[in-house]
C-alpha cells in the first residue's frame, strides 16, 4: 500500500532543514499503523509525501503502486481520490449541515446524486452520526465534529485513510471515541495510518508503532506502545 524507499526530504532555505532522512518503510494493505514522535520529528512530512503535497528530495514514495514523486500534475487527483485524510482541526464547512459536509466530497468529484443519496447516510451511520445529519458543525461537540470529518474522508471509499493528529483538540473520552471509529473502519479493510502524540490512545490499542526522531525511523514495532 505504502512504500518509502531511501526517502529523504530537505527543506531548503535559511538553515536548510532535513525533515526525513533515509526512511525505508512498508505499510501493507489492511494495516493500522501509528506514527509517533516529538514535534518536528517528521510525522506530518511523512503524510504530506504520501498525499503528494510534497515530493521527496531523494528516494521513492510508492502509494498503491504509483510512484508519487513522478506523477504528472494531471494525475495527482487520481491518487487523492483513493486517499481519505483527517486533520486535527476538522476543516468542516460551518455554513453547511453534517449531511452537506459529507456529500460535498462526492459532489466535487462528479458522483451521481443517486450514489450520493446512498453513500452519505451509510458513511454517517458508520461513524454513529446518522441522527445528527441536519445539524451544523458548531452544534456538535469536538468529538462529533471529528467523526463528521472521518465520514467525509471515507464516503468515497478510499483504500487508505491518513489521520494527522485527529485527537489533538479533543478531551480523552472524545479521543477514544474517534479512535474506536478509526479502528472499526480498519476492520472493514481500509488501511489506516495515524500520526499522533496521544500516548494513552497508542498504548491502549497495541497496534504497529513507527517512531520517528530527527527525521529517522528509530523504532518499528508490532503491537507496540508509544514509548520504547
Write the layout of secondary structure elements.
Layout: E1 2-11, E2 17-27, E3 32-36, H1 43-50, E4 58-63, E5 66-67, H2 76-81, E6 83-86, H3 98-108, H4 113-126, H5 142-154, E7 160-164, H6 172-187, E8 191-195, H7 199-205, E9 208-213, E10 216-221
Parallel strand pairs: 3-8, 3-9, 6-7, 7-8
Antiparallel strand pairs: 1-2, 1-4, 4-5, 9-10
Helix pairs in contact: 3-4, 3-5, 4-5, 5-6
Overview of the molecule:
By secondary structure, the protein is an alpha/beta fold. Helices cover 33% and strands 26% of the residues. The chain has seven helices and ten strands. The strands form two sheets. Strands 6-7-8-3-9-10 form a six-stranded mixed β-sheet, sandwiched between helices. The longest helix has 16 residues, at 172-187. The chain starts with a strand and ends in a 7-residue tail after the last strand.
